[in-house]
Design a protein that fits this description.
This protein has about 160 residues and is α/β, with parallel strands linked by helices. Helices cover about 35% and strands about 30% of the residues. It has four helices and eight strands; from the N terminus they run ββαββαβαβαββ. The strands form two sheets. It has a four-stranded mixed beta sheet. Strands 5-6-8-7 form a four-stranded mixed beta sheet, covered by helices on one side. It is rod-shaped and about 85 Å long.
Length: about 160
């Protein structure tokens, strides 16, 4: 490439011979970086490439820190879970939602207990109602094989 279009903060924008652009970059003790190789003539910029890479990594790190990781906690019931166990699991579910985790509540049917699927559905709907102030139901109870599954997402803090 005999000529390049030069842009940058401390140079006169325009078309320069490649050797001239390299000389200018050396004078300023900076790097000549090709920005757009497919343009006619190619576009180059005079900048501190090391500093540019450092700032780019810093920005990526900040973006990664701002993104939130969603965790899913599971709570398992049987179709005939008694009152004490239900209360214990409801308190755990409440804690998970307060922490900001999603909740996957399911009733597991073993053997012939599948005949109690209405009881399982009632149990999950009762849980959804009890946790109404902490989270909202994302998916109503659905029977998948031997499990009836329901998802609850935490409510956003105001």
């Amino acid at each position: 490439m005999p000529e390049v279009r030069l842009v940058g903060d401390n140079v006169e924008p325009g078309v320069y011979k490649t050797a001239e652009a390299m000389r200018l970059a050396d004078q300023l003790e900076l790097d000549l970086v090709e920005i757009s190789p497919n343009a006619e003539p190619p576009v180059c910029k005079i900048m501190d490439y090391g500093k540019f890479l450092y700032e780019q990594k810093k920005r990526e790190k900040e973006m990664k820190a701002k993104s939130t990781q969603i965790t899913i906690k599971e709570i398992r019931f049987g179709p005939q879970t008694d009152e004490h166990d239900y209360e214990f699991k409801r308190k755990n579910a409440e804690k998970f939602l307060k922490e900001g985790s999603k909740l996957k509540a399911f009733v597991f049917f073993k053997g012939r207990s599948i005949i109690y699927k209405e009881q399982g559905q009632i149990l999950l709907l009762r849980l959804a109602q009890d946790l109404e102030e902490f989270g909202k139901v994302e998916a109503m109870p659905v029977l998948e094989g031997k499990r009836m599954i329901m998802f609850i997402a935490p409510k956003k803090k105001k």
